[in-house]
Design goal:
Helix content: 25-40%
Oligomer: single chain
CATH architecture of the largest domain: Alpha-Beta Complex
Shape: globular
Number of strands: 18
Number of helices: 9
Largest sheet: 6 strands, mixed
């Protein structure tokens, strides 16, 4: 086993790529986005950098601590004291959360803007298909790291292999959605850098992203996350319909009718794991099919990392 396909380039997909490349395997990573990172996403608008997905990471386990040390040596991570509670350090990618993915994908081949619509196996190995047809390559193993509902669609339609156990497992995982709002202002707001808000209200989180290390402190850039309940109730709206609603809620929270110079909403349909699978990963050694994601273990970035590490261990042992 040598040629591996990884579907999804979030934390789990990037972790798999890093471990497998380090183990001597050839890895090709497919992602529908324009760049790797998944919810470790950063959007640049003028002088502002908005980390509009994952806001930060906390690190608890030995494996993640080792990875953090590598990021520190590479200069792509730093502490964000403004978000810290007690002794629990908060870490962010610098200059944005999306700085971590390229470091982890070194040595792997990334194929962005590619939505994998089907997978299957035949006598030549595993094949993948996108909306335009077959991907011109065969693989020795396929590892899926997508959110469970998207992964289930691939497993349900899997050709030439029995992916039923994978499909059934995906249905045990549930998520909360999140509407994110990116705002910039031409003056500094009279507000704390981070606000953890009432999860039962409209807003759940608001942060001055320009307070993060290596962001432009002279700019005034904010990321606001709606609460899970509000997001779920309004997930069917378009971004332009959500923007004035969340702006009004933010103005009410601040107690002032501030008007932004930039305003953009982003929909995260699978933002946070509510009910994880309760297993670190799924691996079928006979069929060489695997699944890893935060959906296996929990809502934290480290959960996705640990899940992928577990799956990488299975793959490397099988390849030995």
């Amino acid at each position: 086993m040598h040629n591996i396909a990884v579907i999804g380039a979030g934390m789990a997909g990037c972790t798999l790529a890093r471990r497998l490349v380090d183990g001597g395997l050839s890895v090709r990573v497919f992602d529908k986005g324009r760049a790797a990172g998944g919810r470790m996403a950063t959007r640049a608008v003028g002088a502002c950098r908005f980390d509009h997905g994952a806001q930060f990471m906390s690190v608890r386990g030995a494996a993640m601590s080792e990875q953090l040390a590598d990021w520190q040596r590479a200069g792509v991570v730093s502490r964000w004291p403004q978000a810290e509670v007690g002794a629990d350090a908060r870490w962010v990618g610098v200059p944005g959360m999306n700085a971590l993915a390229p470091r982890m994908l070194w040595g792997a081949e990334l194929q962005p803007q590619t939505t994998i619509a089907g997978i299957g196996t035949d006598r030549l190995g595993w094949w993948l298909a996108n909306d335009e047809g077959m991907i011109p390559d065969c693989f020795d193993a396929v590892l899926v790291t997508l959110p469970a509902p998207q992964a289930a669609a691939l497993f349900d339609g899997c050709s030439g292999a029995d992916a039923t156990p994978f499909s059934e497992a995906m249905r045990d995982i549930s998520y909360a959605s999140c509407w994110a709002l990116m705002l910039s202002f031409d003056h500094r707001l009279d507000a704390p850098d981070c606000m953890r808000l009432d999860r039962n209200g409209v807003l759940g989180w608001a942060a001055r992203d320009s307070s993060k290390p290596q962001h432009d402190a002279a700019s005034e850039c904010w990321v606001v996350h709606a609460s899970a309940r509000w997001s779920d109730e309004h997930m069917g709206l378009e971004p332009e319909d959500v923007e004035p609603l969340l702006l009004a809620a933010f103005q009410m929270q601040l107690g002032m009718a501030v008007m932004p110079v930039h305003l953009r909403a982003h929909r995260w349909r699978y933002a946070r794991v509510l009910k994880p699978l309760g297993r670190d990963c799924i691996w079928d050694d006979g069929q060489r099919l695997g699944y890893a994601s935060d959906g296996c273990l929990g809502e934290r970035v480290e959960d996705a990392f640990d899940s992928a590490n577990a799956l990488a261990g299975h793959v490397l042992r099988s390849a030995a």
